[in-house]
Request: fold
Amino acid sequence: MKQITFYLDFVSPYAWLAFERLPEALAGLSYHVAYKPVLLGALLQQQNNPGPAGIPPKREWTYRHVTWLGHAQGTPLQMPARHPFNPLPLLRLALACSDDGCINRFTAGAVLRHVWVGGHDALDAARLAELSAQLAEQLRPGQDANAEHPKALLRANTEAAQSAGVFGVPMFAVDGKLFWGLDGLPMLRAYLEGDAWFDGADWDAARQLPSGLPPRL
Reply:
């Protein structure tokens, strides 16, 4: 059985789409998924990447694209009332349900649906209280979004992801290889099925290809 780490931040619509698509995309294969929340903003900052929301025309396109993708794959997706937003309360709440930095699929799904279904404000206080109640049986004793334990887990998850080369979400790690994005799921499946392409030189060739751009100052 292959062990897959699914890096996600609830602010990402592609993380929601990939979460919903994953069971079908990997149907029939033997695998286990560890869902690991990380702070996408920190990953983007490390790479000097403003993200889609930092480029106004790309922001508009992204919102159109993900709404259409939800329609196309049959996943309910309505943009929240405000986006982007600060995901820290949601990340910390999810990790208040964790001992080791990983959360189960129920917790991940509950928080993703809170953001991406219905078009509501993801940080509305009353809705956050409802989400906490929904996760009550998952919360570790004495933990909530304001406790130090989930904050420490989020820092550790994000730092470990940065060290592993994770530059965005959703990203899937297996056997030291990283697969990025909703559209990376077919490639992930091919690897898990033993596609011989992964035994050739092409995977490492991408790392070795020289850049034709001048170095950053």
About this structure: Residues 52 and 59 are 5 Å apart (CA to CA).
